[in-house]
């Protein structure tokens, strides 16, 4: 397995563990730094696999097995400069914010790839670590390159 991939998968796994641990402290918002790191690792793996497999193969795989991946990457792109906008605390639990409550989404134009729809379906209002774990598990199923 390629060393870049191994490093990114390890980084994502470690960041997800820190996100899960940070959920205990919903008062100090300690989840934001590990969440930002996890989003960065998901994006890095997304780009690495997209370049290794090619767009058509990678996005076909995402559609079949990893629909949370493009949704998480889309959310990362929307909120990368204001990370606190992607989560909310509700009933003592940290969730992904519903799309209509995301400030970065309110004034955005149409999304020709329906990534906002994927976010609504696979990420929004879920506990923060669940879609990240799904993305991580999906990346583990992909080959290193299209053969």
Explained architecture:
The protein is 61% helix and 5% strand. The mean pLDDT is 86. Strand 1 (87-90) and strand 2 form a beta hairpin. It is mainly α and 147 residues long. Helix 1 runs antiparallel to helix 2 (32-53). The protein has one domain (3-141). It is built from 7 helices and 2 strands. It has a two-stranded antiparallel ribbon with strand order 1-2.
Query: Which residues form runs of ≥5 with pLDDT under 50?
Result: none
Average pLDDT taken over every residue: 86
What does the main sheet amount to?
2 strands, antiparallel
Number of domains: 1
Number of H- or I-type helical stretches: 7
Envelope shape: globular
Please state the structural category.
mainly alpha
- What value does the Rg take, in angstroms? 15 Å
> What is the percentage of strand-forming residues?
5-15%
Overall number of strands? 2
Q: Biggest sheet, strands in spatial order?
A: 1-2
Kindly, what is the distance between the CA atoms of the first and last residues, rounded to a whole number of angstroms?
A: 14 Å
Helix content: 55-70%
- The SSE order reads HHHHEEHHH
Quick structural overview:
The chain has about 150 residues and is mostly helical.
Question: What is this structure's SSE topology?
Answer:
Blueprint: H1 3-22, H2 32-53, H3 55-65, H4 68-79, E1 87-90, E2 93-96, H5 103-106, H6 115-122, H7 129-141
Antiparallel strand pairs: 1-2
Keywords:
two-stranded antiparallel sheet, mainly alpha, 7 helices, single chain, 2 strands, 147 residues
């Amino acid at each position: 397995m390629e060393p870049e991939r191994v490093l990114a998968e390890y980084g994502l796994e470690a960041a997800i563990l820190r996100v899960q641990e940070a959920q205990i402290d919903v008062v100090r918002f300690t989840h934001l730094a590990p969440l930002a790191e996890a989003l960065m690792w998901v994006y890095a793996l997304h780009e690495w696999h997209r370049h290794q497999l090619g767009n058509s193969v990678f996005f076909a795989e995402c559609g079949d097995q990893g629909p949370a991946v493009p949704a998480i990457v889309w959310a990362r792109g929307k909120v990368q400069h204001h990370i606190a906008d992607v989560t909310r605390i509700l009933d003592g639990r940290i969730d992904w914010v519903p799309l209509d409550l995301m400030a970065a989404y309110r004034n955005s134009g149409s999304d020709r790839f329906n990534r906002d729809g994927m976010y609504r379906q696979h990420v929004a209002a879920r506990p923060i670590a669940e879609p990240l774990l799904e993305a991580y598990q999906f990346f583990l199923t992909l080959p290193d390159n299209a053969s």
